[in-house]
Amino acid sequence: MNRPLVCVTLRGRTADEMASDAAVAKAAGADAIEARLDHLWTIEHPVQANPRSDTRGNGDGAGIEVEVRQLDLDAVDLGPALSTIVEATNLPMVIACRPERQGGYYPGNEDQRIEVLRAAIACGPRWIDLESDIAKPIRDELVGLTGDSTGIIASMHSIEGTPSPSAIAQDIEDNHDLGDIIKACYPTRNRAESLRIFEAAWELRDSGINTALMGLGPGGDWARIHAPLLDQFMVYTTTESGWHLAQQGRINASDLQTAWSLLEYA
Fold first, then answer.
1. CATH class of 5-262
2. Which pLDDT does position 60 carry in this prediction?
3. Which is it for the CA torsion 57, 60, 63, 69, positive or negative?
4. CB–CB of 24/36 below 8 Å?
5. What tens digit of pLDDT does each residue of 195-250 get?
6. How distant is the alpha carbon of residue 52 from its chain centre?
7. pTM of the predicted protein model
8. Inter-helix orientation angle 136-145/110-122, to 10°
9. Element (H, E) at 244
10. By three-state DSSP, how is residue 127 classified?
């Protein structure tokens, strides 16, 4: 049974906050970190007392609901921000800039977002996250910019629901040649929907495809917790802690590794 890589998605809405969390992630035993550049164009605004969070997994879990608001495009000086994040740690890094169509926050148009991805690739990350639905000529160009040391994560982030296990597995197989790792994330309204992700991962475990499957919602952490059993390649985690993570389908990096030890997975 292979141990998947533990990747911590950096917390924070500024480059300095992400850099600070990179040190926390390393201390928690992370194998890699993910920098979500689209988060740089956001700010959290408290709106009311409520422990729930938005569907994209945000919230501080302290009884305060926050509304994530987008900043103007010119609010971020990307070059210095990238340098701050990249220089914060020597851990392998995933860089992503998620568009709104896949649940992200980047405020610009697609051409502007592609320029962000070009700048990210130039930093030489271990992996660059390129959504599977990027127009093929543009995606091929971005892939061509990567060197031998930068791998491709082909990602799919549904905002419409969780398909059947067979449909999920088919999507992964259909897109397996788009990247070195195929990532798929689905919103889950209940544990029955989360079970579909688990079943798809089980079906794919002997496929030879490097996968990272997960849900956001109740039971969404099952595929993360049992990732070694499912032969997943990478598991996305957080340094955040609190009871609310389970309802969001997320998991703390240290808690994940404790679970793997208790389950004798690693």
1. alpha beta
2. 43
3. negative
4. no
5. 999 999 999 999 999 999 999 999 999 999 999 999 999 999 999 999 999 999 99
6. 20
7. 0.92
8. 20
9. helix 244-248
10. strand
